[in-house]
Amino acid sequence: MRYNKPMINDNIRESAQKAAKDFKASWVDLGRVLYTVYKDKLYKEWGFTDFDAYTSKEIHIRRQTATKLLKSYYFLENKEPKYIESAPSVESVDLLRRASMRKDLDKEDYVDLKKKLFESGKDASEVKKGLTTLIRERQELEPKEAWEQKRIKVIKRLLGTLKSLRTELKTTKVLPSDVLKETEKLINRLESEVS
Is the pLDDT score of 18 beyond 90? Predict the structure, then answer.
């Protein structure tokens, strides 16, 4: 008995396509269920103190993975619901979601990115490299703006640290009150720099 090799290869090809589609769809299904569990705090009914404990002990996925699934599903459902059925990869959705929040990308950039990821089916890592290059080029073209953004980021990071230390100083009282007053002044001055 002779097998028709092209027919077997076609069946394998169809099976691979179906398996890939099922795999992509499964993250959407998991994201949908996790979103419901998170939103309705169902994990508490099941004896878990928080969502992270539930996902790590019950579902056996890391916190970062659960967060990516939640945020990606929520973004897809609210911003791009027509793509839920075509189930783009979670990496593609996450990249588009993060890009949508960037202030240095405009609506045209977003639409172009969405076409590459969702319609042309380009690999998320490849698109991410291109996006990184685009952002760098824009920053090089506008060095003053890029410097200002970096300055604000550093000041905000310093503010966060100072506020945390201020709280600790208030509760532990390890330093004199005049140091706390000077810390307050510095916090106020830095806040005026970023507002």
Answer: no
